[in-house]
Amino acid sequence: MRIGIASDHGGFDLKRKIASSLKQAGFDVVDYGAHQLDPADDYPDYIVPMVRAVAAGEVDRGIALCGSGVGASIAANKIYGVRAGLIHDVFSAHQGVEDDDMNVFCLGGNVIGAALAEELIFTFLKSHFSGEERHLRRVNKVRDLEGAESLN
Q1: Is 106 considered catalytic here?
Q2: Are 88 and 69 in contact (CB under 8 A)?
Q3: 98: Cα within 13 Å, side-chain hemisphere
Q4: Which of 21, 45, 57, 98 is the most exposed place for a label (fewest CB within 10 A)?
Q5: Annotated catalytic residue within 19, 34, 53, 66
Q6: Can you list the domains of the chain with their CATH numbers?
Q7: Are 19 and 31 in contact (CB under 8 A)?
Q8: pTM flag (> 0.90)
């Protein structure tokens, strides 16, 4: 599985730890930056290119980090085809994929530690969309919203 990962300064240290763990586990990791710690950088500059790659199918899933995870989640969900969730618990890490076909995992580098972040991300990556009719119906309603909003 090919994984995109991106963060600003708020998630920089955690991103490096997560990327290393993912590589050790055999994932192909594409790092969209930041590549150096810069307290003045802006999360959209890194998150948006990564989530565009998810939407285009260049990477299978994405991991977006900032200080709280909120900004990363907001930016990620502006891109057509991205279903990003701000996740800080195990249930949501798998349920977001199984029921909502979440393809981008957002978290706050200043909110949780590396061990929990890795557990949540590995849970996200091993989860699969159920494809159940009710879940597919809901995901399609979200896709319809994206199309309608892009026309306005």
Answers
A1: no
A2: yes
A3: 9
A4: 57
A5: 66
A6: 2-151 (3.40.1400.10)
A7: yes
A8: yes
